[in-house]
Each structure stands twice: as structure tokens, then as C-alpha cells.
Amino acid sequence: METIIQSIIEYQFVVPRLLTALFLSSMIGVERSRKNRAAGLRTHALVGVASALVMVTSTYLFNEYNALGAFPDPARLGAQIISGIGFLGAGTIIQSRGNVRGLTTAASLWSVGTIGIAAGSGFYFGAILTTILIYVVLRFAVTLENDWINKKQLTKLIVYTTSQDFSVYANLAHRRNIRILEQLFLGSNHVDDHNEYMIMLSINHDQRRNMQVQEYLKDIGSLTSTTQTKLIDHQDDQGDHV
User: Fold this and answer.
1) Nearest Cα to 174, choosing from 205, 148, 198, 207?
2) Cβ(205)–Cβ(155) below 8 Å
3) 230 — phi, psi (to 5°)?
4) Which residues, in sequence order, are bridge partners of residue 96?
5) How far apart are CA 118 and CA 122, in angstroms?
6) pLDDT tens digits for the chain (242 residues)?
7) Which residues of 94-131 are buried (b: 16+ CB within 10 A; e: fewer)?
8) Long-range contact list for 94-102, CB < 8 A, 24+ apart?
9) Are 28 and 138 within 8 A, CB to CB?
10) How many other C-beta atoms can be found within 10 angstroms of the C-beta atom of residue 231?
11) In this structure, what DSSP letter does residue 97 have?
């Protein structure tokens, strides 16, 4: 019992560091969870706390071996976190039919690792300030990009097609200066003697040129493979069928 008490007194700095890493990384995880990302609260909290523990362990090893006359590098384990966490971030990146998703979540995981390193090292100010900045970026950057910088608006439309070559819609969008943010395959139905595929396109376009969307719909409708398109979630709340 005395040994346990002595250990608690000797390593009392461990508790605030791990708890700080847990709280700060959880803040980032909550923001990701609200957006239904693959890596949410639990993943970010685990990465942050584990990173902090690595740095606490580095401090422990340095103190232990330093007493024996050795001088280990306390930053070596932390360096492995920076490079090693990449595999976890790569697992959140999804590439499908020309679209890439998960880059922001991968970056947030890497960022949480650095927050854990700072908290585990006792650099509380840096950890807290970085958490606040990252949270603000994740929370408000999309609005800033779309409404202030690019003056963009989001429109979603569903396309019914007999072709599996979905890249044609991205090519048509590029011609109209429209950016496809997301392209989801919703399913398929067997109609008469052919298959009909349903995809949903989330497009980002300049709100000062709303005719772009109408022209884009006409482009899609002119394709022989397109059987129908439906415009949804438009700011004018209109549904167009081609």
C-alpha cells in the first residue's frame, strides 16, 4: 500500500496530463461525430490519450535511466507517433468512383496525436490553444469557404441512368464550372430489359450564376443513358425533372 501511495505522489503529474489529453481530443471527436464521420469521439479520444501516455512514458524512461547514468532521448517515442499515426488516418480516407472522402478526418486524427504529445509533455498552453484553433477550423471552415470565399451553394440532385460510367457527370460539371463534392451510388433496379442505376450528386456552384445548374441539368438530360434527374435541396426549393 505504501508503495502505491509513493508511486501516486511521485507520478502525480501523470493524471492531469492524461485527463487534459482526453478532454481536448474528445472535443475534436465530438465535432467529427456530429458530422457522422468514420472516426468520431471514441477514436479521437483514444488517439489523444494514447499519445499522451507515450510522452508520459518517455518522461518516465528518461528519469529512470538518467538515474543510472544513461541519457535516452525523451522525444524518440513521440516522433514515432507523428509518423505512425498515418496508417490510422489512411483508414478513414475513402476513394470511390473518382471521389475522395475522409481527408479532413485523417488530418484531425493526426492533429489529435500532436495534441496528446503536447499534453503528455506538460505543454498545456500549446495543447489547449491548438485544440481551440482546430475546433474552430473544423466547425466553421466550410461556411467560410462556401459563403465568404467561394460564394458557393450546395445543391443535390438524383440521376437515374442506364450507364455505369458515372464519370461523365463530373466531366459535364467541370464544363459548367460546377464542382461535385460527393457522388453516391444509391442502388439499382431492373426495368424492362435493362438495369437502371441511381446516383446522388452533391454539387457546389457559384450562387451568383444559378443558371449553371439549369444548364447542367440540360446537359445531363441530353445524354441518351439518362432516364430522369431530380433536383433536391435547392435554395429555391424546386424540383426539376428531365
Assistant:
1) 205
2) yes
3) -135, 120
4) 99
5) 6
6) 656 666 666 667 888 999 999 999 999 988 888 777 777 888 899 899 999 998 988 888 888 777 777 777 777 887 888 778 877 777 777 655 555 677 788 888 889 999 999 998 889 999 999 999 999 888 887 766 656 655 566 778 888 888 878 888 888 888 888 878 788 888 888 877 788 888 888 887 666 566 777 888 888 888 888 888 887 765 433 333 33
7) eeeeeeeebebbbebbbbbbbbbbbbbbbbeeebbebb
8) 94/38, 96/183, 96/185, 97/166, 97/167, 97/183, 97/185, 98/166, 98/167, 98/170, 98/183, 99/180, 99/182, 99/183, 101/182, 102/37, 102/38
9) yes
10) 20
11) T
CB 221 within 8 A of CB 242: yes
Print burial letters for 28-40: b (CB count within 10 Å at least 16), e (below 16). bbebbbeeebebb
Domain segments of the chain: what residues? Answer: 12-148, 152-232
Give the per-residue pLDDT at 205: 66
90, 109 Cβ separation under 8 angstroms: no
CA-based nearest residue to 60, from 25, 12, 24, 22: 12
Written as one letter, the residue type at 205 is: H
**Cα dist. 49→5, 20, 46 in Å?**
23, 9, 5
Q: Topology of 152-232 in CATH?
A: Alpha-Beta Plaits (3.30.70)
C-alpha angle with apex 70: 65 to 71, nearest 5 degrees? 95
Distance between CA 96 and CA 160 in Å, rounded?
A: 19
- The Cα–Cα gap between 30 and 68 comes to 44
Looking at the DSSP bridge assignments, the partners of residue 100 are: 95
Q: Whole-angstrom Cα distance, residue 231 to residue 79?
A: 49
